[in-house]
Amino acid sequence: MSPSSPVSTVIVCWIGIDWADQEHVISLKAVGSPTVERLQLRQQSEALQDWIGQLRQRFAGRPVAIVLEQSRGPLLYALMHTDFLYLYPINPKSLARYREAFYPSGAKDDPEDADLLREIVEKNPERFRCWTPEDPLTRQLQLAVEYRRKLVTQRTALTNQLTSLLKSFFPQALEWAGGLDTAQACDFLQRWPSLQGLQATAPSKIRQFYRTHHSRDLQHLDERIAQIRAAQPLTGDSGIIGAMSLMVRSLAQQLQPLLDSIAEFDRLIQTLFQQHPDHSLFDSFPGAGAALAPRLLAALGSDRQRFETAAHIKSFSGIAPITRKSGHSRVVLFRLACPKFVRQTFHEWAGLTVRFSPWAREFYQRKRATGMKHHAILRALAAKWINILTRCWKEGIPYDEQRHLDNLKKRHAPRSLVGFSRERPV
Hints:
Helices cover 58% and strands 10% of the residues. It is of the alpha/beta class. It folds into 3 domains: 13-133, Nucleotidyltransferase, domain 5, CATH 3.30.420; 139-273, Helix Hairpins (Orthogonal Bundle), CATH 1.10.287; 280-418, no CATH class.
């Protein structure tokens, strides 16, 4: 990151945090105070949020600088969306060399490291780039897309439970209820959580149910009712049916408000995305669509100086692997320390571009032919897309597929990748 100190003159408190698996060690020094406060913080999200709340109250929401090691990803990700915190990620090698200047013996101690982290930036703020909060619109969009994804994960867990349960005693419902992640299925399973209850219902009421949910094909409805009448239960054990029916109804009741919340988040995300000045840029990429275009915008943000190069984005997102060399050995490892949601965003987007971008599809097929595994190909493809995305983002211009194909031709890319040019038949 390039040096800059955009907020050094208004910082009211400097904090160094030495991250650990069990506890974080904190060194805190308020501006103008000669006292250095040291404390320990449990490695729990609740404890971290309580501490952030105390800082907000103590310093009235004014800027607080936190210095932490760059490699300690999870802590950075937990702090990066808080508006009054200004983060200074420090490369571990920089801290190690700074430590050696004061402790040439090589001694290492957590409280000392927290002090050194705070001092290295507090005394030299102009030499370090501050990770500043995004603008309110971008920050709200970033949180909204993450929260929506968490709700989708909960929805998937509930529908998987329902699927497993229904297969045990009422498998016909998987067809008759419709998709389990729909309002129709929730309504169906709350009314008829068992085959016996459904068969005891008058055909007119069943028809009315489907009509209410916009199924008006009379012939199809008659066939469905005939199937219901002729169906045989998987089990006649009243004990099993009673308990499982109650569980089905309970899961359906939990699923309904979750679906409503996801739909509400979808509306909010689209509203925020359309208001954002960069929405047309991210909308231009193939495969992005209504779901992933806002997530791509949230991944990069609106600060063009936050990431200097595409390589920084690849490392930050976890798309770039880690290479370890020792002697004649070389090992390429999957990067674990990264914001998982951001990595998931690029990974899913790369998969969709295979359907919507000819050159991406050709890239995937060529790699697949060499025996490369599916997810490894998508990570490699995501890395190529990040190169393109970074260029468009930095220059503020939408993506142009034909322009990219022309650039591939100029760089003498494999002939199969540039065969999609308009001047030549596919």
